[in-house]
Amino acid sequence: MADKPAIVLVHGFWGGAAHWAKVITELHRRGFGSLHAVENPLTSLAEDAERTRKMVRQIDGPVVLVGHSYGGAVITEAGDLPNVTGLVYIAAFAPDAGESPGQISQEKPPAAFENLAPDSDGYLWVKQDKFHESFAQDLSEEEALVMAVTQKAPLASTFGDNVTAPAWRSKPTWYQVSAADRMIHPDNERRMADRMNPRRTIELDAGHASLASQPGPVTDLIEEAAAASAG
Questions:
Q1: pTM (2 decimals)?
Q2: Got the DSSP string for the chain?
Q3: Using 50, 70 and 90 to split pLDDT, how confident is the model at 223?
């Protein structure tokens, strides 16, 4: 296991580190011993990126950063650290300099855009009764219910935070498109992937929560990035 890089998993909006549960167990089964999952506050891109950087700095040796959804913006912002050797985007935002997840979403709104609801404290939620169809239509009702009830709402203002210096311009990248994504328009995912010129792009017949519904192919892509990192 010493020849494998560390894997740092970065969650997105409306979920925490446990959204990676199935990928974590699959990576462990494949011999990855240095696994880490950031629990970001979802309060601003700057704060989330710094929390991620702190975890990466604690790790000796190469790190592959993996981001889902908004976590893609986080790894784009935080991936400039010298020991980060690859970036893997799982149905994720990959903004360029001066772009925000909100701007990208407004240009091509996803199918479930109307199922987002702000509260009086400034947090943005996926309506509980719409969570299954919006975020995880290819999971069971029970799994989606747990995700809906335990969702971690971001401050709505975080949607508008711009990336400053995108790490994907200087680091090797891999991208997984979810063809049935209702939270990020699949065409936005394809466009963001294409302009990164990734080592590989895969497209899965999956909803937004592909990390939970198709952990095998998602782990395959992470493993490929790790192998490239190792040599």
A1: 0.98
A2: -TTSPEEEEE--TT--GGGGHHHHHHHHHTT---EEEE----S-HHHHHHHHHHHHHT--S-EEEEEEETHHHHHHHHTTSTTEEEEEEEEE----TT--HHHHHHHS--TTGGGEEE-TTSBEEE-GGGHHHHH-TTS-HHHHHHHHHT--PPBGGGGGPPPSS-GGGTS-EEEEEETT-SSS-HHHHHHHHHHH--SEEEEES--TTHHHH-HHHHHHHHHHHHHHHH-
A3: very high
